[in-house]
Design goal:
With 447 residues, the chain is of the alpha+beta class. It is built from 18 helices and 16 strands. Helices cover 41% and strands 19% of the residues.
Length: 447
């Protein structure tokens, strides 16, 4: 027999039930609808991958957080830590796929890293991921930002800030600081902590890189050329004046092109941030993060992603880049943000709760008829009193109850009561759907 401690959840995971589970389904369904509206098709990949696949493109920092296991054949396996690496592995195995290949996936990923539940950071979390393979120009990024804008509007999340940068540009900035190539990725991973730990702590870590600590002039130059004040055009002009490497100039031109698309779309919420690094080392060009402007709700990015043009070619064993770009909505953080602004989330998906009064057999048949009208119906199978059944329906915030006694059976009606205000009418069974639609008081977005 298990004791109370044995029944506790593992650290960093959570049961989702009631209104939170309903909200998660609503967000998933909303995003799925938007993804398909933009021409993305679903893909499902296993949560278990060969360890060498995830190790090949994971990078040093993320490898510390990978859940590893062995099967009964003693083969090394691992749980996916994102949706991008499995996509690249899949595409590399399917040369018959046409480009552009646009796919979405909504599924769980796993990281054995620090947890922060109050900011939606768990060991198991859901990424709602969209990617485009085969488009080299910044129109792909522009479409993704348009998709994100539509999603935030439909989810009612209000104002957001999109931060963009470019790994090629960051590479050029590091060349200015004379940071050697073997240290660049490590420096990028440290720079990614800027918002979390602050400038001074980042400087300290950069100057203490094991084996290749950066000099004070190199650190100061890097910070000076990434933490830049001014609007987007002023930042671009400044970097254009100091950029020497062709790679850096190419990255700066891609930033210009993306901002040009954003201007065409009247997107005034896009901010060029040269310090934006992203903590995964497979990015090759654009990087982006999306934050709520009200950071007191969720101060971490709700969307994050970027361009990974080398990953698929690396899996295929060629040196030919295959353009690819995408991002993920974090389901947990998205739901946290919605919960903070919507106080009337539903506790149940049930629209009508049928209460039989000595008519259970007949009521089961009637419930079946109403369900065929695409209405969510529950029925009291516990044979409780009317008062007890009403109390149960109220506790779950079910909007309507349908009372069926002998009189209703004879007249082929249901006595429907709206619990919010007591409105009550006898309704013919064939008219239940239209009656509920006319008199519904559904809660925003979740009905």
């Amino acid at each position: 027999m298990l004791n109370t401690d044995d029944l506790k959840l593992a650290k960093g995971v959570k049961d989702w039930y009631g209104k939170q589970a309903i909200l998660r389904n609503y967000v998933r369904d909303t995003l799925r609808s938007i993804f398909e509206r933009y021409g993305y098709n679903p893909l499902e990949t296993p949560i278990i991958e060969r360890e060498e696949v995830l190790s090949f493109k994971g990078g040093g920092e993320i490898q510390k957080e990978v859940f590893r296991l062995k099967d009964q054949g003693r083969r090394n396996l691992a749980l996916r830590f994102d949706q991008t690496v499995p996509l690249a592995r899949f595409y590399a195995n399917h040369p018959e796929l046409k480009i552009p290949y646009k796919r979405y996936v909504i599924g769980e990923v796993f990281r054995d890293g620090p947890t922060q539940p109050d900011q939606g950071r768990y060991r198991i979390f859901t990424q709602c991921d969209v990617d485009i393979i085969g488009v080299e120009n910044m129109a792909a990024e522009a479409e993704l930002l348009t998709l994100a804008s539509d999603a935030f509007k439909e989810l009612g999340l209000g104002d957001v800030t999109v931060k963009i940068n470019n790994r090629k540009l960051l590479d050029g900035i590091m060349d200015i600081a004379e940071i050697p190539d073997p240290v660049k990725i490590q420096a990028i991973l440290i720079l990614d902590k800027l918002e979390k730990i602050g400038i001074e702590a980042v400087k300290k870590e950069l100057s203490e890189i094991e084996g290749r600590p950066l000099s004070s002039p190199a650190v100061d130059t890097l910070i000076k050329n990434t933490v830049i004040q001014g609007n987007n055009h002023e930042k671009i002009d400044y970097l254009n004046g100091i950029m020497a490497s062709n790679t850096g100039k190419e990255g700066l031109q891609e930033i210009r092109q993306l901002l040009s698309y954003c201007n065409e779309m009247d997107f005034d919420f896009v901010e060029f941030d040269p310090s934006l690094a992203r903590g995964l080392d497979y990015y090759t060009g654009t990087t982006l993060e999306v934050f709520l402007k009200k950071k007191d709700i969720v101060n971490s990015a709700i969307i994050a992603g970027g361009r990974f043009d080398n990953m698929i070619g690396d899996f295929k064993g060629t040196e030919v880049p295959i353009p690819a770009v995408g991002f993920s909505f974090g389901l947990e953080r998205t739901c946290m943000a919605i919960e903070s602004i919507m106080s009337d989330l539903k506790e149940t998906t049930v629209k009508l709760f049928i209460i039989p009064l000595g008519t259970l057999a007949e009521s089961l048949k009637i419930a079946h008829i109403i369900r065929q009208q695409k209405i969510n119906v529950d029925i009291d199978l516990a044979d409780r009193s009317l008062k007890a059944a009403m109390r149960y329906a109220n506790s779950l915030d079910i909007p309507f109850v349908g009372i069926i006694g002998e009189n209703e059976i004879k007249k082929e009606v249901i006595t429907i009561k709206r619990l919010s205000d007591g409105l009550q009418n006898e309704v013919p069974i064939i008219d239940v759907k239209s009656y509920l639609e006319r008199n519904g008081n559904s809660k925003v977005g979740l009905e």
